[in-house]
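During the second year of the project, the team shifted from modelling isolated chains to modelling whole assemblies. The rationale, set out in the original proposal, was that interfaces cannot be judged from single-chain predictions alone. As a representative example for this report, we include one of the complexes processed in the last quarter. Its constituent sequences, exactly as entered into the pipeline, are reproduced here:
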Amino acid sequence: MPVLAVFLGLAGGAIVIVISNAASGRGFDLLLPLRAYASMLTGAVTGVDELVRTMSEATPLILAGLSVAVGFKAGLFNIGANGQFLMGALGAGAVGAAVAGWTPWLAIPIALAGGMFFGALYGFIPGALKAWTGAHEVVTTIMLNFIAAALVAFLVTGPLLAPGFSFARTGDVGNAAFPAIGNVAASGHIGILVAFAAVPIIYWLLNRSVLGFEIRMVGANPSAARYAGINPGRLVILTMSLAGMLAGMAGAGQVLGITHFVSASFSTAAGFDAITIALLGRVHPVGVLFAALLFGVMRAGSALMQIQVRVPVEIIDVIQAVILLFLTAEILVRWIFRVRVERAGLEELKTITKTYGQATR
Amino acid sequence: MQPDAESGRDHVVPAAPTSGPEPQVVLEMRGITKRYPGVLANDHIDLELRDGEIHALLGENGAGKSTLMNILYGLVTPDEGEILLNGEPIQIREPSDAIARGISMVHQHFMLVPVFSVADNIQLGQEPMANRVFLDRRAAHERIRALGNAFGFEIDPDAKVETLSVGWQQRVEILKALDRKAEVLVLDEPTAVLTPQETKEIFGVLRRLAAEGHSIIFISHKLYEVMEIADRITVIRRGRVVGTRLPAETNEDDLAELMVGREVELTVDRGESHPTEPALVIRDLRVNDDRGHEAVRGVSLEVRAGEILGIAGVAGNGQNELVQALTGLRRPAAGQVTLGGKDVTGASPRALYDAGLAHVPGDRQEYGLVLSFPIKDNLVLTGYHRSPFRRGFVRDDEAVDAWADKLIGTYDIRTHSGEVAASTLSGGNQQKAVVAREFSRDLKALILDQPTRGLDVGSIEFIHRQAVVKRDQGTAILLVSAELDEVMEISDRIAVMYRGEVVSVVDGRTANREEVGLLMATGRRDVLPETRVMTSE
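Output from the structure prediction step:
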C-alpha cells in the first residue's frame, strides 16, 4: 500500500510537471517527468558526496519520523514534532554555545543532551496536559508549535543573542559541533550515525522492553491497558516525552551538525514531513527509516533536477503531499488499483478519532 | 393480545402442527459450502424452512451457523450450493438482494443508531419521501404505529433508541425487518441480551409472526429456549448438519450431545463447599455512575474463602459499577473494601493484582484482551510486570513463550500457535484464554463478570468446572452474571441486586428460581412485572 501511494505521488508530481511546464510556455513535454526524476535520482545516489548528502537530509527526518511513530504506537498523534524539533535545536545551540570551549568529548554529548532534554520537556508539556486534563494532544501540540517558533525568535534576539554578528543569532557551538563526514560540500556529520542507530534502539524499545509493551498496549486497547494495571496518564507522559526527545534530537542534529548556530529565523518543516514519513513507514521503525531515506533522496536530488531540467524544487512538496493524500485516503488507492482488501485500512489514523476528547484518568 | 402462559424450563412445547396438506417449503439451502483459509466453515449444508415455521439453528460458537446465515443474507458468497425461494433458485449477491426478496436478518449486535428515533432507524435506507426532497415523517410514523399494533405492542416512533431498554431495542430491530416486507426472518441469538421476562415476550411476538405466515430461522446456542420456541431444530457441528429434530422427540441432553459431539455435563457438579473465613469484605459501598448518580447504594457483602457468591440481577442495576469499584476501574464514593484483611478501597488494578485479586472482565474483547496482540502476550497481559516475565527493563520472551505453551495446553485453547493474534480465536477460546490467565496463580479472591457470555455449551461447562476447582482451592469467588441459570448453577450463596442494593441473600442450593427472578425484576418477592407498554429507562 505505501508503495502504491508513492507511485501515485510520483504520478501526481508528473502531471503537475507536465502542466506547469506547458503553462510556462515551454511546450507539452510528456517525457519531462521521467527526465526530472532521473535527474533527481542522479543527484541523490550517484557518488559518495551525493549519498552522504542524501543521508544528511534524511537524518532529521528519521528522528522526527520516529518521534511521530512512537506517538502513534501509544495512540497519540504527535503533530508537535516540529515545535519539539525547534526546542531541541535551540537547546543544543544554547548549551553548545555555553560549552563551546570545552573538549569535544564532553561538549558534544552535553550539547546533544541539551537538545534531547529540551525536546523531551516540550513533549512532556502536552503529555501532562492530556494526562491531567484530557486536553487532546492534536490541539495542544499545534499551539505549542507556534509558541516554539516565537520562543526561538524571542530567545535568540534576547538572552541568547551572541554579540558581534550582523544578524541575530546564538554563539557558535565550537567544540560541540558534530564532526563532519566526507566532503564539506556534502554536509555529512556524525548525526547521521546517531539517526541510524536510533532505529534499532527504538525498535528494541518498542518490541522487547517492558515499557514498549505498555506503550503498544495503550495504543492498541486503552481499556484493556487500564484493566491490565497500566496507569494511562503515566504512560502518555512518558511517551510524549520520549517523542519530544526524538524530535529534539533531530533539531539538535541540524544545529550541531550543519548550521552550528541558531538564527532568530531558524525554522523547519521536518516535523510535518515526519507525519507523512511515519505513516508511509507504517509506523514501524524500519519503515520510517526507508521512508525518510526516500524523502532524503528527493531533497538531496532536487537541486540537480532544478539545474538540469529546469523543474523547480517545489515539485517535491507536491509529490510528498500527494503521497500523504493517498496514504490517508486509502480507499482511493484501492479503487484506482482495484485492490480488494479484507482488513480495515490505516490503523494509525484511528487514533485521531478514537482518542478525541478522552481524558486519561 | 395476551402474553403467553408461563412456561418453565422443563415444559416442552409441542411442535405446532401444520394441519391440512403437506407444509410448503418456503426456503431451501442445498449443499452450501464455504471455505476459508484453514477451515471449512460450511460443509455441504442442507437446510429446509417451511412456511409459517420457527426453525432453530443450533450449534456451538464457530460451528458455522453465522456463516450460513450470512450467506443467506448476502454478506458472504458460498463456494458451492444453491438457494431456492419457493422452489425457485435465486442469486443473493448482497444484502439488498436478500431484502428485495423478503429475507431479513436481525443481528445479535443491534444495528441501530442510538441517537436516532425509532422511526428514523426503521426508515433508514428506504425513507418515504414527500415531494421527492423532504422526508415524509408522518407517513412513516403511521406505518410504524400500525405495524407495532399488528404485532401486539405499542410503539412510540419518536422515542430515541438509546433511551429504550434492550428488550425494546430488540423489538425495533424486528419491526425494521418487518417493515421491509420480510417473509423470511432470520434472528441471530435474539435472546442473548434479554431478561427471562423479555425473552418470554419476544417469543410471544415470534409465535404471532409465525401464525401470520412469516417463516423464522432462530439461531441460538441456548438449549432450553430452542426447545421452547422451535417447531424444528437443526443442529450444526463443525460446519455440517448433524441432525434435525422435533422438540417432542428430543431433550436438552440429546441436543447438547449432538452439538458438542460427546456427552456434556449440563449442570456441573458443584459438590460441597467448605468456606472458611471471609476473604473479600465489602462494607457499605457507594459508587456513582458516569452521570454522577448513585449506582451502588450502600452494598455490604462478605465473600468467604472457598465459596462462590453469585450476584443475580438484571443488567443495569449497579452490578457494573460494583465490579468496577472492586477491581480498581472506578473510585467508590464511600464505603470500604478489604481483601484478606487488608484495606483495598479505591486501590488501583495493579495494586489489587499484587494483593491477590483476579478479575475476569465482562467484556473480554474490550477489557480482557488486546485482540491485535499475539495470544502469548495476552496470556501475560496482567502479569507481564512481574518476574519471570521481565528481567528489569526487558521482557523475558522465553519465559512468556513457555508460560503460553503451558496454558494453551492445560486449558485446551484451540490455536495452532501462541504467536498469532488473539483475534483469530473463537469467542469461547478467547474467554478460555482470559480464564487461563487469571486462574493460573494463587488467588485470595476472584471476580467473574459474565464469564460465559456468548459462549457455547462446551466452553460454559469448562469454565464452570474450573471455577469450582478454584473455589475448592480456597479462593473466594464473586460471580456476577445476568444469566440467572449460571448463577443458580454454581453459586453457593446468591445475592440479588436491584437498583443498586442487595435486596436478598439466599442459599444457592435451596433457592427458588421464580422467586429469585421476581427479586431481580422488581426487588420484591410478590409482584408480577408489567411490561406491555413501551417504557424509557
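The mean pLDDT of chain B is 85. The two ends of chain B are 24 Å apart (CA to CA).
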